[in-house]
Amino acid sequence: MVLADLGRRINGAFAQLSRVPVIDDKALDALLKEVASALLESDVNVKLVANLRSKVKAKVKAAIESGADKGKDINRKNIIQKAIFDELVLLVDPGVEPYKPKKNHPNVIMAVGLQGNGKTTTCTKLAVYWQKRGLKSCIVCADTFRAGAFDQTRQSATKAKIPYFGSYTETDPVSIAAQGVMKFKKEKFEVIIVDTSGRHKQESELFQEMVQIGEAVKPDMTVLVLDASIGQAAEAQAKAFKESADFGAIIVTKMDGHAKGGGAISAVAATKTPIIFLGVGEHLYDLDKFSPEPFISKLLG
Ligand code: GDP
Prior knowledge:
alpha/beta; binds guanosine-5'-diphosphate
């Protein structure tokens, strides 16, 4: 189920609640069952869903026992809706503040993620985003593994009028990353985005390379680029990257497509890392800033 449908289904369950004669335990259970199955069909992790269900139940019970509903169904309905809203926000909010690039500082941002997840596209989008907000931005292409990676960076960076660094001849990604970051630091760039390789196979080598690049460029923030369309696999992928790259933020791409998105949401909880942006298309400006509460409001809007 795509996220828009998830919102519609939860809203449908709320509407159903208004139609029942009395809002009692049975009505609450029926609502929670519907919300839970909608979340599961959107690929949200089963444990997270079970947890949400029991927390909403406990909150509603405590509120009713304290007399907050004043014995009225309408108040009870609001209490239930608010409890579900709050728990949905918590699903996408690990309570950790992501790093924010600072003016007059060479902020190094390293992007990691598997090939095809949209890393290179996202690096250009990020550079454009920060450039527009007054931070002098650039890109270093440290992907020497995929033939054509540097060409892709060159093309998209040129289109976006973003300075870039890379090499057709140098084969050591650590050396390219170090050279590029050093050059741009000297030139007083404020956001230096390092795009790394995302090879699919040879995972241990990929992770080793990421660690080495990290040691060479000392990123202020490492960002995991995660494709929403991989569904439940997002959680395991995020965990594996967290162990070696220890990223501080997540960007979920391809949210414009038919992705369920719940898998990526579960990745937040599994790694206790905030989502900072959503990729919502193939174009340079198709990047939405992510904040938990507005996201859930919009989902249910
Ligand atoms: P990389 O291998 O991780 O560097 O991935 P690329 O940046 O080359 O992207 C792979 C494909 O996904 C390309 O066709 C991109 O245009 C596409 N892509 C990246 N981000 C998005 C997004 O947010 N939405 C959509 N629809 N496509 C995207």
